[in-house]
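Chapter review. Work through the record for RagB/SusD family nutrient uptake outer membrane protein before attempting the end-of-chapter questions.
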Amino acid sequence: MKKIIKYFGLPILAIGLFGSCENLDVPITTQLTPEVFPQNSTQFIQTTGPVYVAFRGDFSFSWWWSQSLTTDEAILPARGGNWFDNRNYIAMHFHDWTIDNGIVGSLWNWSSGVIGRSNQAISILEEAMPAGAEKATLISELKTMRAISYFIMMDNFGAVPLDTVYGDFSSRAKSSRIEVFNFVEKELKKAIPNLNPASGVATYGRPNKQTANALLAKMYLNAQVYTGTQRNNECIAACDEVIKSGLYTIEGRNTYLQMFYPNNGPQMKEFIFAVPYDPAVGGGGLMYHARYDVPRSLRTRFGLPFTPSAPRSTLPEFYAHFENDANDIRNRQWLTGKQFLADGVTPVTVTTTKKGYDEYYTGADGGASFTYQVELSKEITYRGSQANVKGLDLGNDEIAWNIGYRNIKFYPDATSTSRNQNNDVAFLRYSDILLMKAEAILRGGTATLGDTPLSLVNTIRSNRTTSAPWTAVTLEDLYKERSREFAWEAWHRNDMIRFGKFEGQWGFKTDTDVKRRLFPIPTNALVLNPALVQNPDYIND
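Structure tokens for RagB/SusD family nutrient uptake outer membrane protein:
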């Protein structure tokens, strides 16, 4: 199934493609003449490839880090100096990132780079392709990818430059957040009639009609945040378009976790738009979740060909959402407590020294051999001086490496010969459609199709747990359900902001400044584009 991305990794004829951080345009390094223009259907599809390669590029890195490490969902502290990286990761937790933070810079470069490549590919196809349905579909797909990237920029940075003309390299000032919202909405609505109505292998990894409708629903649900005006009925209408298409259904309890396995793909009934990964296909884009999430002591349990780093953990505040229903299949995405090999019986043990187990051990026999069963702790325990807490180094002993529960939703891939996994990653899923519709109704929208917030939520829960259906649902209940359903899928920051929880306190974070709802414009972007101005709340930082 994964070979469907074979075109996405191919070069676009003789055209060199490079990222852009300046005007959201991408320069061409060879002269575009009729001899190097794409000339047939296969080459037209190949022309779109660099856009998807670019989107795949940092999707599992700066996108995930910026959306999850800034919340109570995940924390990536240093462990014995490892993963300190100039505080790039831990600054996300403390909400004290600066304009020079590497994750913030990568997020800008990634999303703007996809826009630049989209502009270039659209320009080429506009000139090279004959008029017809294929041209209209390919260009609408590219404009939808551009709209997704502008949505990401608007969501994370607020006001950003709008640029859709390839070849115009003049500096551009920012458009307001409302203007960007309106642009994305218009682009998606214009694209829908020309997008492929099908799902499955034919459209997998490329946007179809319901991708655009699902993103419109996401936009409308967050419209109060983006524009100051609620648009709950529009959210419901967009969700209904997806529902009425009949293309998707909720995966059952026995297949929920399989949606995230290495062999997932277009056969998954909930995937509206997913990002395909295949270590055997070149062209950029890595999926490293197991490297970050599996404790190094569990390499043998999962049969991995590499030793994972395991720097990422969840926080007790987030894990609390999973503690009240033992029958929920979603609990099985976590590694907690004492660890056993794949048989579930044989303890995972590590032999070290007493000092290697606990670097603070003061006994004279610190070099003596010590064997213990691996046990992951729920609490994130800092053992150093409080004066250095913002460096948050948990230590370089066995205790430190076992601090924090770990998420293995994107199940470790033992088939890959490198750290790169085969697991595709969903960007938009059908369960999100049902939960967004439920939330929009709870926030004042008009119920349609006979649905109620309770029936919509219970449709999902009946496929996740054998416990009794709910008899009532509140917005707070819905927030917790979203936390369970989309853990590790990079939507938690978006949810926390909409529910007014992003300024809360969790872990070691105490910052409550609402300015952190947006990231600053990175320094490199300001240098490359003199027309850009810093987001107001960061001007004096």
